[in-house]
Every structure is written in structure tokens, then in C-alpha cells.
Design a protein that fits this description.
Length: 220
């Protein structure tokens, strides 16, 4: 009698275990089917992503970057730049007249030098610093400055340089960064714009630096 009760109990337990196992097997089939569906959806999404990236790449590469201005434009001298900064726009294209009438302005930008004797009948202006040329064959390499103003773009350039730069070099780097100039005298435009902005200081003829480098990160 005791054996019959034990067998009956075991049979009931076996049936319950088999039912539980069958439910788990059915659930596994459902999960595997769902997993196959998810894998298919993921594969489709990967294809869409790849196609979208390819389309974006074609669109980006098909849009021409701004073209640099012709290299034949007149590159003003430091004297012409200083005249423009001083507001004497009528003498921008007349360096000789500017040197005669504004020699004191030129002297105010010269570094201090040891006094030397000069004959009053044979005086020559002090030696000026070397003005870097505008680089030839400029090419637009990016569009990083396409949507920036001159002060904004120059702030980035001076921060990257870690020191002052002449407007000729600033012009070259701005063009390479996709900045588009609208006037006929871009280097003078740079000089006048920087001279009017309290963020910058002129350290030499046509040469500018940031007023406070430690604060430049918060002003760009």
C-alpha cells in the first residue's frame, strides 16, 4: 500500500515536471523566433545606417569649399596697415606720402633701441621688423571659419599659436579655414577689426595678440 502511494506521488511529480519542461521548451522556441526577428531588424537597420552614411559622404564631398581670393590682390605694407588703423584711409595706397607725413606714428611702434648718433642731414628711419608675406597658392583646407567673424576666428588662431601673429599670416590661415572676405584689402580689414576690439592688442606694426590669454577660453 505504501509503495502504491509513493508511486502515485512520483507519477504526479513527473507529470508536473514534464508540463513545466514543455512550457519552457515552448517559451524557448518563442524566444528563438523573436531573436531571429530582432536579428533581421538589426541587419536592416545596419543597412539603412550604411546607406545614410554613404549618402551624407557623397553630399559633403560634392559641396565645393569656398575658393580663396586670387593671389594677385594688393598686399598692403605695414605702413599702409598702420595708416588704415589710424583712420587715414586716403593714404592707404600711398606709402611714400605716409612715410613723409606720419613718421612719428611709425616711430611710436618701434622697439626701444640703444641711441646712436646720426647726422641731422643724413637721418634714416629705424629698421622695421620683417613683415611675413601672404603665402602663395593658398588652398581652402576646411570650413572651420566659414560661419565665424574675424575676431572669433582670430581668437582661435592666436590661442592655437600661443603668441602674436601678423595680419598677413592671419589672412593666410583664415583663408585655409574657409573664411570668405568681401573687401579688396582683406589684411587691412583684419587689422582694423582687431584694433577696434578690446580683446586684442597690437604688439608691433600689423601684429596682434590676445589681451588676456588666460581669459581667451571664455571669450571665443
Amino acid at each position: 500500500m505504501a509503495n502504491e502511494n509513493l508511486i502515485s506521488t512520483l507519477e504526479q511529480s513527473l507529470r508536473q515536471t514534464q508540463l513545466a519542461r514543455n512550457r519552457l521548451a515552448s517559451r524557448l522556441v518563442e524566444l528563438e523566433t523573436e531573436a531571429d526577428s530582432i536579428r533581421a531588424q538589426l541587419l536592416e537597420m545596419d543597412n539603412i545606417i550604411a546607406q545614410t552614411r554613404s549618402t551624407m559622404l557623397r553630399l559633403v564631398t560634392s559641396v565645393p569649399l569656398p575658393q580663396p581670393p586670387p593671389a594677385s590682390f594688393h598686399v598692403p605694407s605695414d605702413d599702409e596697415i598702420e595708416a588704415a588703423i589710424a583712420g587715414d584711409y586716403t593714404q592707404v595706397h600711398n606709402t611714400h606720402l605716409y612715410q613723409q607725413q606720419n613718421y612719428r606714428v611709425q616711430q611710436s611702434y618701434q622697439p626701444q633701441q640703444q641711441p646712436t648718433y646720426q647726422s641731422p642731414h643724413n637721418q634714416t628711419p629705424p629698421v622695421r621688423h620683417d613683415m611675413p608675406p601672404v603665402r602663395s597658392n593658398l588652398e581652402v583646407k576646411s570650413d572651420r571659419f566659414a560661419d565665424r567673424t574675424i575676431p572669433q576666428a582670430v581668437t582661435l588662431l592666436l590661442r592655437e599659436e600661443g603668441g602674436p601673429l601678423h595680419v598677413n599670416e592671419l589672412y593666410s590661415r583664415l583663408v585655409e579655414g574657409g573664411f570668405e572676405f568681401s573687401g579688396n584689402n582683406p589684411t587691412i580689414s583684419i587689422a582694423v577689426s582687431l584694433n577696434r576690439n578690446t580683446r586684442f592688442r597690437k604688439v608691433a606694426p600689423g601684429t596682434f595678440d590676445l589681451v588676456m590669454r588666460e581669459a581667451s577660453h571664455f571669450r571665443a
